[in-house]
Amino acid sequence: MKLEKRTTDALLMAEDLHVSYGAIRALQGFSFRLQDREIVSVIGANGAGKSTFMNAVMGMVKRDRGEVYLDGVKLPGKSFQVVQSGLSMVPEGRRVFAPLTVLENLEIGAFSRVARTGRGSVRRDMEWVFSLFPRLKERIAQPAGTLSGGEQQMLAIGRALMARPRVLLLDEPSLGLAPIVIQDIFKELRRINEEGVSILLVEQNARQALLLSQRAYVLQTGRLLKEGPSKELLADPEIRAAYLGIKGK
Amino acid sequence: MKKSLAGNAAFIAIGVSLGLIPLSGYEEGIIVLLCINCIAAMGVSLLTGFTGIFTLGHAAYMALGAYTAAIMTVRYGIHWFPAIVAGGFVAAAIAWLIGMPTLRLTGDYYAIASIGLGEAIRLILENWQSFTRGARGFPGIDSYTTRWVAVLFFTALGTGMFNLINSRLGRELKASRDDRIAASLMGFNTPSSRMKALLISAFYCGISGALLGGYMNFIQPSMFDMMKSTELTAVVVFGGLGSMSGTLLGSAIITSAMEYFRDISQYRMLIYGLMLVTIMVVRPEGVLGNREIWSFLPGLTPDRKGRDQE
């Protein structure tokens, strides 16, 4: 594999991404950067291109144009190679392996890196995941399909962490969860970040996403509408009206 | 480790006993047919039961194997053993050509494509008069499929298959069956493992077809029509999707039932239909569901990871 180096201070960087589904142009030139140890969120309405953006980074959809760089190195195009180079994604709708137990789901998450790091550290990483989500330890032998939605989301995050990613990507982790569970999960995301994992978050729940992240991008119909520190966006009257449902003031 | 060794030993023991028990000529014929059907069913089971790619066209790969072996032995006088193996490889090669564009499809879409391509292969064999003798069929094939040849191939391929489904590739296939997107996010190269599953299943069907030719002494394209393809998949569903021993059991039950009711000739199909409907109503997951037969034995509960913790 030929690697193209590029000098940059960003850990993850995307340039001029274009993706289309047939005649529909879902992403029209979106550029993005994520610093090391940063939490960045991408918010926007339905169909704004948020998930498409994440899938384009992971190689789950074909990019018409644009490249993604991790630490200045061009990311490969196939998703399994992207995973092996240090990105790990929690897909929309969790997608845990329902017939497998919690433990088996976590083990399968370590698959992509066992060749790199050996089996030795799998156990240790699992303890880390259990310390983040003690509920998973209680349910270690239970088939994942029998877990509640929140627990499945925890498992999906734990499974992604087992790959020891440098960047954790989350596609709508709040989808279909009770507000109190969302708060729990977002709290753990902050802890994960404090332990050195950079996080890229795609959310419709703009308020939660902006409260968690340091910076954010706002997408609208495949284009960048605004970007900036999350605090400023939270205070921006236009964003408040359009995405937070708060008028006036 | 120990478990797989015991499994291999058990499988070889079954093979040896199938090969050695004294039987009448008629019974021997049933054993041969059983081995042939089981080999094809195992191939389809790998693809449909373990990879989640529903196929309704695998009889075509049997046809390719059968015609390859027949033409090689009859026209070119090649020994039957390389001819049978070549049958498997030709089937796999054509599967590769077909798989390149079609494996991007999933679910019902692949099933529909497989019907069309299966029929296309059959029609090519039927109309390529100069090479295959067309619809008149291909006579004069040596009876190279004796009992021990059939049992040998069955034992070898069966042992291989049981080891395969517990290998890393087997687990990758199951992961991509359960959730293809999640599997590729775990770092599995799902397109490549799906292709491997298709090639291996076509290889098994090709061998099975080659053996069938040597058993019947005569092959014709209509033996490998859509009915046959449907039967292959029906056997797998009957035995249980995702259970290799279920596939063998299903194949054994259906093959023997069809033999048992041979007297009533075409009314057999009523029995066949009745069996399929009964299993769908009573046990929709198939005879063994997605478990292997030894997991039902007392004292041998499946050693699911996690149960041993805390």
Q: How would you characterize the largest beta sheet of chain A?
A: 6 strands, mixed
Instruction: Identify the most extensive interface between protein chains.
Output: A-B, 33 and 19 residues
What is the architecture of the largest domain in chain A at the second tier of CATH?
3-Layer(aba) Sandwich
Enumerate the spans of chain A where pLDDT stays under 50 for 5 or more consecutive residues. none
* Intertermini distance of chain B: 24 Å
Helix content of chain B: over 70%
Given the helix and strand composition of chain A, which structural class is it? alpha/beta
Shape of chain B: globular
Fraction in helix of chain A? 25-40%
By CATH's scheme, which homologous superfamily of the largest domain in chain A applies? P-loop containing nucleotide triphosphate hydrolases
Query: Gyration radius of chain A, to the nearest Å?
Result: 18 Å
Shape of chain A: globular
User: Which series of helices and strands of chain B comes N to C?
Assistant: HHHHHHHHHHHHH
Strand content of chain A: 25-35%
Which CATH first-tier class of the largest domain in chain A would you pick? Alpha Beta
How would you characterize the overall build of this protein?
The complex is a heterodimer of chains A (249) and B (310). Chain A is of the alpha/beta class and 249 residues long. Chain A folds into 2 domains: 10-86 and 165-249, P-loop containing nucleotide triphosphate hydrolases (Rossmann fold); 98-164, no CATH class. Chain A contains 11 helices and 10 strands. In chain A, α3 (102-109) runs parallel beside α7 (149-161). The longest helix of chain A is centred in the last third of the chain and has 16 residues, at 179-194. The mean pLDDT of chain A is 88. Chain B has 310 residues and is an all-alpha fold. Helix content of chain B is 71%, strand content 0%. Chain B has 13 helices and no strands. Chain B has helices spanning 2-20, 25-50, 59-76, 80-102, 107-127, 129-132, 147-165, 168-178, 180-185, 190-216, 226-239, 244-260, 268-282. Chain A binds chain B through residues 58, 60, 78-80, 83-84, 88-89, 91, 95-104, 107-109, 111-113, 137, 140-142, 159-160, 163, and chain B through 175, 178-179, 181-182, 184-190, 290, 304-307, 309-310.
